[in-house]
Amino acid sequence: MLKNLTKIVAILSVLVLSTVSKAADPIRIPVLNWSSQIVMANVLGQVFEELGYSVELVPAESASRYEAVRIGDLHIAHETWESTMALPFYEAMDKGGLIDAGTHDLITFEEMGFPNWILDENLCPGLPSWEALKSPDCAAAFATADSGGKGRWLEGPIEWHGDVMPNRLKGLGLDDLWTVKFAGSADALWTELKAAKAEGRGTVIFNWSPNFTDASGFTFIDFPPYYEGCRIENGGTVETTGCGSPKGWLKKAAHIKFPMTHPSAYKFYTKANFTAPMIGLMADMYDNQGMTHAEAATAFIAEYRDTVDLWKN
Ligand code: TMO
Q1: Which of 3, 90, 239, 310 has its C-alpha lying 20 to 30 A from 202's C-alpha?
Q2: Average pLDDT of the residues of the chain
Q3: Strand order across the beta sheet in which 250-255 lies
Q4: Residue nearest to atom 2 of ligand 1 (CA)
Q5: Three-point CA angle 103, 220, 276, nearest 5°
C-alpha cells in the first residue's frame, strides 16, 4: 500500500514537474533586423503555440546569438546563412551545446548589387562585372552627399558582416573610388532603392537571395570567385580578400536540449523546410504589402496550411 502510494506520488510529481517546466519555459526565438527572419520567427512562434507551447520573441544580434543558443538562453537560430554566419555557428557547435537541426532546400547568396534599371540606362557600362567599378565616371554616378565624391556602397548594418565589404574594396584596389556606408537596418536598404530611382543616381546596396527582390529586378555584381580562406576573417590577406561571396546553405540551429525540453516543437522545427519563394513571400508581405510581422506570419501559415500541418505531424 505504502509502496504503491510512493510510486503514485513519484509518478504524479514527474507529471506535475514536466507540466510546470513546460509552462515555465517559453520557447525563446531570436528576432533580428531583416524581414524574412522576423516573419519566420513569428511563423515558428505561432506554430509552436498551436502545439501548446508558449513563446518569447527575443531581440538578438546576428553573430552573438549562436553563443546564446549554445548556453540555452535562446532555443533556436532559425535563419543561419552560410556566407555570413557559418563561423559563429560552427564555433558554438565546437564548444558544445548547439546542434544542427537541418538545412532548408534552397541556395542562399548575400552580395552587393544594384536594381536592373541601372543596366537599362547604362549608367555604368560593363556591369554586372566588378571591373566596371574601376571607371571614375561610374564611381561618380554612384556618389551621394555623404560619400566624399566617391561612389557609395550601402552595406547592411555593421553587425551583419563587420569589415567584409570595406576589405573587399581594398582587396580589389577600388577604395580610392568607392566607399562603404552602413545602413541602420534592412529597411534603409529598400528606402535607398526608392531614393536612388527617384534621383536618377546609381546605387549599390547589400542584398541577398531568397528575398522579395528576387521577383522585382535586382542584379548581383560578379566579383572574383570565392574560395575557402580568401576573406581576412578566414585567414586571408588584403591580396585575397577581393573575393566575392559564396553560394551557401540556410541552416537551422537549436540548443542541444531543445529536442528533450520541447519535443513536438523540435520535431516540427526539424521538418520545417522553407523554399526560396516561401522566404521571398515572407519578406514581401512585410516590406511591400504593409502587413505587420505577426500578420504576415498568420497569412503565411494560412497560405501554406497543408504543408505546415504535414511538418507538425
Ligand atoms: C543576413 N542577411 C540575410 C540579411 O544577409
Answers
A1: 239
A2: 93
A3: 76-81, 250-255, 98-103
A4: 208
A5: 30
Contact 255, 8 (CB under 8 A): no
Q: Does the Cβ of 84 fall within 6 Å of ligand 1? A: yes
pLDDT of residue 8: 52
Nearest protein CA to atom 4 of ligand 1, as residue: 34
Q: How many CB atoms lie within 10 A of CB 309?
A: 12
What Å distances lie between residue 305 and 3, 26, 105, 266, 289, CA to CA? 49, 24, 19, 19, 20
C-alpha cell at 89: 555557428
Q: Whose CA is nearest to atom 3 of ligand 1?
A: 208
**Neighbouring residues of 88: CB distance < 8 A, sequence distance ≥ 6:** 63, 64, 65, 66, 67
What is the sign of the dihedral through the CA atoms of 67, 298, 267 and 84? Answer: negative
Q: Give the type of residue at 39.
A: V
CA distance 43 to 308: 10
The confidence band for 4, taking pLDDT boundaries of 50, 70 and 90, is low
The whole-angstrom distance between residue 178's C-alpha and the CA centroid of its chain comes to 26
Helices 293-303, 305-312: crossing angle, 10 deg rounding: 80
Could you tell me the pTM of the whole model? Answer: 0.88
